[in-house]
Amino acid sequence: MKDILxxxxxxxANGSLHIGHIAALLPADVLARYHRAxxxxxxxxxxSDCHGTPVALRARQEGKTPEEISSRYHREFAExxxxxxxxxxxxxxxxxxxxxxxxxxFHKKLYESPFVYEKEVPQAYxxxxxxxxxxxxxxxxxxxxxxEARGDQCDACGMVLEAENLENPVCAVCGSEISFRSSRHLFxxxxxxEQELKNLVESHENWRKNAQTFSERYxxxxxxxxxxxxxxxxxxxxxxxxxxxxxxxxxxxxxxxxLSSSRAALKDNPEAFRQLW
Length: 277
Ligand SMILES: [Zn+2]
Ligand SMILES: [Zn+2]
Fold this sequence. Notes:
This protein is an alpha+beta fold. It has a domain at 1-96 and 253-277: Rossmann fold. Helix content is 36%, strand content 21%. It is built from eight helices and twelve strands. The chain has helices at residues 19-37, 53-62, 66-84, 97-111, 194-202, 209-220, 257-265, 270-276; strands spanning 3-7, 41-48, 90-93, 116-126, 131-132, 138-141, 148-150, 167-171, 179-188, 226-227, 229-230, 247-248. A hairpin with a 4-residue loop joins strand 4 (116-126) and strand 5. Helix 2 packs across helix 3, helix 4 (97-111) crosses helix 7 and helix 5 runs antiparallel to helix 6. The protein is globular and about 60 Å long. The structure holds zinc ion (2 copies).
């Protein structure tokens, strides 16, 4: 009997599911059923990805709170998976207390490592709205392909961006020109993990081709340190003094959902959780 962990991708809670989501998620359910039938011990988990600027932005546009928006879609997703007969052992959400507690514990330990440091960086700010503008709260022109891009990424060419890289950046809420103000953030030193990450990618030849290619490309182009925190109201509190007005950056918490949800699935058996991971 084998211990099998299956993590279904977490749908993002700012819009309804469509057939494309289901097509991508179904193979994991088939796999879970196969392993259960074969007598293996399966932990099949997933959940709704509830934080980040797309939910916050949508809430602002609809005159609702981000909690209302993400809860609405979380309920819809859970109901949809139930009706379709998905066999998750646990389906959670990143706005649950279980997930938030897990993430804060994890980050506290992470900040004690030599890979996390503080840095003052220019952050987009809207005088008209009177607030910092994280990621998608800024829109502008991509410096790489000239397409319309947001403050975190260009969907047209896939380029990872910062708001200060955009040409003609404006506030996504009110359309005003933006300015930049200094803000202190925690960063993770990815460039110092280059060799470990390279070894990790090279030792997993069974990864899907596009996962391999993307990972190799990021390493080849030079890993850039990434912010772990954001000037946002919506998200998980940063467990660090002086960061009361900031939140953990979504990329640094949503993928921890595989850990937090399997811990929740196995809450009566902490030893099984440790063994699984
Ligand atoms: Zn582009
Ligand atoms: Zn504005």
